[in-house]
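sorry for the late reply, my laptop died twice this morning and i had to redo everyting from scratch. anyway the thing you sent over, i finally got around to it. pasting the sequence first so we're on the same page, its 173 residues, then the predicted structure underneath. double check i copied it right bc i was rushing
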Amino acid sequence: MNAFWLELLLRLRLVKLAPLRVLKADMSPTGRLYAKVIKADGTVKNIGLVSTKLVTTAGVNWTAGLFSGANTATAKYHQSGTGTTAPAVGDTALQTAITGVATGSLSSASNVVTTVGTISYTAAYAVTEWGLFTTSAGSGTATLIDHATFAAINVVNGDSIQFTFTLTFPTGG
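ok and here's the structure:
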């Protein structure tokens, strides 16, 4: 499904749920993951929106720890994998991580935090999962903030994927 339709479905889902969410005082953060493949020959294929899944429980707890000063690391470390199991809030690692963690940029504007990381590959993979971590140690060691699975993005030696993750915190209410 292309990015336009995924974004439209997300917006319709959020509009439909908005009155119920307000009544229940449920103002959950929303993570969106976008991908762009950069081939070894320099050609670029913009995949667009690939996931609008969840922020993990560990990610929420880590974010809460920022307010108390218990956490000082930044969540800007991107790792990919080949796992296909649907993400769950209790996830703490990728299902099948590929070696290598990209240090992403980090910025914020109003109520949206954005990190962009580019992962380079030295072998062929069908990349189907991604995670955002709090350190460059990556899966299994660092705190997993967000976890997403998506349709396979095929890469070969010399290719890279630029992942852009946005986390929107609802305002008001």
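The CA atoms of residues 61 and 67 lie 10 Å apart.
thats about all i looked at so far, will dig more tmrw
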